[in-house]
Amino acid sequence: DLEPSIKVHLYAADVKGPKGEEPDVIVGTPQKVKNSIRRGELDLSRVFMLILDEADDLIKNDQEKILAKLCDDIKTHGERDGSSKRVQVILTSATLASEEVQDMIKLLTTNAQWVDTKGSILGNILPDTVHHAFYRIHPDEPIIISDDNYCKNPRASVPTDGIYDLDPSTGLASQEIKLKKPKIAVKIADAYKMDRCMVFCRTNLDCDNLETYLHSLDGIPPNRNVSVEEMMTSTAGYQYSCCVVAGARGRQHNQEALEAFKQGVIRFLICTDVAARGIDISGLPFELMLTLPPSDDAETYIHRIGRVGRAGHMGLSIAIVAADEVRERVWFHKCNKPRGKGCHDTRLVKDGGCTIWFDEWKTVKAIEKIIKEPIPEVDPRDLSIPELGIEPPTEKNKGSRDKPEDSRLNPITHKDESLSSKRRLMWLNRLTEEESNKTSSTAIYGQLVNDRNMSCRSLKINPRDVNLRNDTQIEERKVTRMFLKTLG
């Protein structure tokens, strides 16, 4: 057998690599690896490569001091045993442009070589195959929800986090946003015929509430727990089958839910940001966000939409965002109660309580600053995305499960028009005259980029991107050869 055998040891949480073996690869969390080195369980003399995966997230969790010490220990050990080895440090992430990450790169590396597979030096840090947009929701907007033909309980009530019930002074506008977001999510999912969709929520409680609401649409009582196995094997004909992947659900449940979703048995995978990184679901076509990340963590948006449009498949991500004049009052527990269970302190954190005002519009601006372009908006009247030339399947083009009159949200005009002329002009200025004259076409989400999908005018592949990829591949091969030379 000419294939090399590679031994991998894991150091994370309560897992620790076996003693008496010499692994080729050590995988672990920074703190766990540091502790193992301190106890003399890991020999650093043969370490030639240190990889920091999702580097920006490691720094965000205040682990930069541990990483700096770990890198220094590896280098110092080499000097102490008389070797002249070089340790290659690799930092990987979809977002390495923040000032904090830049400082870490300078601290851990010398003359770092950048390998950019997305063309971010051209201002495009998003995958070429991803379309993304946001739906701006107003608290006074009436929602026409799903058709009785395929929804068993279209008037199901939406559970919320309970803040307004505990303290009405937090505002009816905030409560209305919470009540309408799940309904709009369902409306968008049905309009675009999302047969497999990942849905991001802010907290475990938000995931639980959305799961309860989707079950209610299928006629499942709110107090009844439906297991992953039952959801997979039931013949009840659930139109809104869903599972949750979140920290509170446990590892086994999360693995079962993820596997069911990958197999296409479950329509909606509801998750917190624990699923935003490191999960690869082949051909995932759709994604919805019920809440954006905080403005000081806007990079998480890039990681979220990176779940769709992978490996050359087309993907669509839509965020449902409170209008710019509305903020949501949400839980931000500072109490000692596990996950805030049993907490009823609706005072603001600055007043010693456990709630904050969450401003999603501030996050929109932060995201647009990162991606260097405005985010397209969904037209609330027909759920199309005019800036991208995208509209949901209808009886005119693909045939629709919805009746024409049911596929529209309210046609009222808001004082602050959601598709403002200024934002529209910004987008049109980015399109060439030839692209602007193209007719709209419906992308086939979840399918590989081909002639049909290439016709969608918003696809961001162009000749200079191709040249960039070729140049990147050449540079990558150069770096690989240079590193192999250092190994002798």
TrEMBL record:
InterPro entries cross-referenced by the UniProt entry: DEAD/DEAH_box_helicase_dom (IPR011545), DEAD_box_RNA_helicase (IPR050079), Helicase_ATP-bd (IPR014001), Helicase_C-like (IPR001650), P-loop_NTPase (IPR027417)
Q: Name one GO cellular component term.
A: cytosol
Q: Which domain of life is it from?
A: Eukaryota
Molecular-function annotations in GO: ATP binding; hydrolase activity; nucleic acid binding; RNA helicase activity
Question: What CDD domains has UniProt attached to this entry?
Answer: SF2_C_DEAD
Q: Does the keyword Nucleotide-binding apply?
A: yes
| Keyword terms of this UniProt record | ATP-binding, Helicase, Hydrolase, Nucleotide-binding
Instruction: Tell me which residues make up the Helicase C-terminal domain.
Output: 187-386
Q: Where is the composition biased (Basic and acidic residues)?
A: 393-415
Q: Which residues form the Helicase ATP-binding domain?
A: 1-114
PROSITE patterns registered for this protein in UniProt: HELICASE_ATP_BIND_1, HELICASE_CTER
* Start and end residues of each stretch annotated as Disordered: 381-415
| PANTHER family the UniProt entry points to | ATP-DEPENDENT RNA HELICASE DBPA, ATP-DEPENDENT RNA HELICASE RHLE-RELATED
* Listed name of the protein: ATP-dependent RNA helicase ddx1
**Species the sequence originates in:** Perkinsus chesapeaki (Clam parasite)
